Amino acid sequence: MKQYCIVILKTLLFWILFFAITRILFLLVYSSLLATIPAKEIFAVFYHAMRLDLATACYLISIPLLFYTLQLCFKHKIFTILLRTTTMIELAITSFIVIAETGVYGEWRSKLNYKALAYLRHPEEIIKTATTSQLIFSVVYFAVLICGFYLLYNRFVLKPSIVSVKKSFIKAPLCFIVTGFCCFWGMRGGFNAIPITQSASYFSHHNILNDAAVNPHWNIALNIADFGSLEKNNPFRFMDTQTAVETINELRKTIQDTTTVLLKRQDVNLVLILLESWSADLLEQFSGSNEIVPCFNALAKEGVLFTNFYANGHRSQQAICSILGGFPSVPNYDITDNHSKYKSLPSFIDKIAERGYHSSFYFGGNLDYGNIRAFLLHINFDKMTEEKNISKQIPRGKLGIHDQYMFEYQRNDLKDQEEPFFSMLFTLSSHSPYDQPKNTKELTWDTKEINYLNSAKYSDYWLGQYFEKVKKEHWYDNTLFILVADHNHPSHIERSYFSAENQRIPMLWFGNVLKDEYKGTVCNTIASQVDLPQTILAQLGFDTQSFTWGKNIFNPYSSEFAYFEINHGFGWITPHGCLTHLVNRNNYQETHFTGDSTQLKNMLFTGKAYVQKLFETYLEY
């Protein structure tokens, strides 16, 4: 029994060693890209790689685990043969992935992905384009990896071999259950609320270090599973590409590149508060009640409230990508899951950094969720703070630190921040399981969403307290505050899944930097999260051409529309109403539509052209 446990542990360490050595060789091959990076940060690659390496190793030992257990029951050489064969196959596959990634990285500066893997289907082209030295290196590297690690496995892992034990038919299943549970724990990256993602290995602003830290086998497996079938079958192709492009160009066309300026000056600080799961139905404007979020309602009377603003998707990472990368949510897939794709996006943070803006991001939870940390590092936030960076003495719930403490943490952190700055705070408490402190007056309404409503009420109260304190800060008078939700959430008001109201979210611009004539006003223009980069940059006097998917909300010549994704389809909102199209059912549904049949047909056609071009762009990245 003891030997059984030792062999499993040795197998696990065998794969950890394989990952470490191949990672060292990768860094040596591309040492020229590390010349300006401190050695301490380079060595940190191995520490940050450990969790994902361990998870990958647990997947690789899952089949040998079965054979090891059978060895406890039966004394037969077949299990040793099966173990050697399985390991040889796994070594061949993992070595091929390592070599392929090392090869493509020099050309594309990205990890091996499905698109790159597709080129490997034509080995004759690779042989023709590769130099002789590259081919020799690849063959030798492949042979050394397989032979060297196979000998290591055969000599040090399998010996001494597992010996069958008495009453093995009782002990073996128990051993398998215990070790299988531990293996599952490793695959998942622990039993935190959020399973492990690639973000667990992201830690640096140097892309090569993040790329080296992310386990290549985990990365390619995820990539193939998520994106492998798409290049052959774009489910959102409705027309020829040229027609789609012409339709979208017409939609983007503006008679004049101008903007209504709401700000007193352009050199302002920006504080963006991303409100977790806040539905527009929380607001007095839509619910008819001031009881849920009275503080937000009070702020709205002093700022600019957007009443026709919509989420592009249904998940937090989609909102963050739309707001900071200017890319709409893609049906069925999240671009933040794939570094090779989101690296093609423009960065709002890079843009404002051109004028000296310092950027910071605050979240009381775990940024592994949705691969958010990796995306934020890629777009070059100067500072990122999440739960693990904050003292354990600060109270927290199951998902992380409660909003009241994060509001205070961010405010204190900005006291000495050099201006101008952009600071983004992502709230948490209005996400299930709604275990926020019961320190605010709660609603007693008869609705199944009462826990959600009370969580929003809690966040709203501490949002009000935040502004009471922020107004006393020296930087307050020169700061524009933007409060916007990441996505909608079912509320006490029943909404159709396919209606525009189910995507409507609150957005408020607030602060003394607003011109007096705009304070306490309402903007009814139809817009969405992907419009924010252009709109904010236009107010600050920046060029906005790199953010092509959005529009400037305050350009009176911009088209009025909002797009949002749904599973296997999309939604399209115009002044005539809302239309949703489910591709897998080949049907559409309109709600609150006020136009005629021709306008409905045009809406459907334009929406199809938009999502087709969006998805084609996504595949091209």
The gist of it:
The chain has helices at residues 2-29, 39-60, 62-73, 77-108, 114-119, 123-129, 132-157, 168-188, 207-213, 216-227, 241-252, 284-287, 294-300, 316-325, 339-342, 348-353, 372-378, 403-413, 450-470, 532-539, 597-620, and strands at 269-275, 304-306, 309-310, 358-363, 383-385, 421-426, 479-485, 507-510, 521-523, 527-528, 562-566, 569-574, 577-582, 587-591. It has 621 residues and is of the alpha/beta class.
What does this structure look like?
46% of the residues lie in helices and 10% in strands. The chain has 621 residues and is of the alpha/beta class. The protein has an eight-stranded mixed β-sheet, with helices on both faces. Strands 11-12-13-14 form a four-stranded antiparallel β-sheet, with helices on one face. Strands 3-10 form a two-stranded parallel sheet. The longest helix has 32 residues. The mean pLDDT is 90.
Give descriptors for this structure.
single chain, 621 residues, alpha/beta, Alkaline Phosphatase, subunit A, 2 domains, eight-stranded mixed sheet, four-stranded antiparallel sheet, 21 helices, 14 strands, globular
Q: Give the CATH class of the largest domain.
A: Alpha Beta
Portion in strands: 5-15%
Approximate helicity band: 40-55%
Low-confidence stretches: none
Instruction: Tell me the radius of gyration.
Output: 27 Å
Strand order of the largest sheet: 5-4-6-1-7-8-2-9
